[in-house]
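Researcher: Structure for this, please.
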Amino acid sequence: MKSHYNKDINGWIILDKPQGISSNQALRKIQYLLHAKKAGHIGTLDPFATGVLPLAFGEATKLIPYLEKDTKTYEFTLKFGQATTTDDIEGEICQTSSYLPSEAEITAIIPQFMGEIFQTPPKYSAIHIDGERAYQLARQGTEFSIPPRQVVISKLELLQYQSSEACADFRVTCSKGTYVRTLGHDIAQKLNSCGHLTALRRTQNGFFKLSDTILLDNLKNMIYKTDGEFPILPVETFLCDITVIALTAEDSSKLKKGQAIDSNQYYNFKGIAAACYRNKLIALIAHQENRLVPIRVFNL
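Model: Predicted structure, token format:
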């Protein structure tokens, strides 16, 4: 039987994920519509969260390990006075507080959440605990603990505070692994109150921004109108954020075969670079003594 997923599609679709579905569900919907053989996404968004979700297809999936480490920016609304089991609107109220902080108090504690901080991820999360997802154990009523982890908050600002609604809007730029739900919980606790997120939207994921996104319904319509074809962003889109090395024809051939090349005729760079020939991505490369070694080779 012929597989439904039979098309070699390479590139990116930057989705504005809607509320109510998981990141993986959104990815699988689009993979099914495109009949794409291989697909993946960068950065998981909670079902209640919306915003920038980069979807990689084909050869672009090889870049996921290198791009998922990028910083991410979110806007979120924290409602004071009620805590929930999930730290967001999907959980049940588990704690209440009559104390509601002032705008001045909120602004004053923001510096305490800047830089390298430790946070304990929520039990309703996708973290693995002895081979099972934490949220599955939590739903089963199993007792378990999650050790705190270090994350980096590079920017945190209060956008507005509606005292009548006890709701504060924030914008945060943070490292991979940061749980914004936990950040909201911890902010409320620090203010001698409690709280939960009522809205969460990712506005940037690495160099992918909201302006790059497309709504799921719009994408579906475009795919149907073009009989399953859709002009996705090329794999090389990520080159705007990485060092690029222009290869000779001979070195391009070597890298395609997985062979190292002499680094002397190319300028030095730190970390990983993209090696291209005639504007086509050939490989990701790294220094190894006086050689440039292919880390990932692309078949484009």
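Researcher: Any notable elements?
Model: The helical segments are 23-34, 64-67, 103-109, 134-140, 180-190, 216-225, 249-256. The chain has seven helices and 19 strands.
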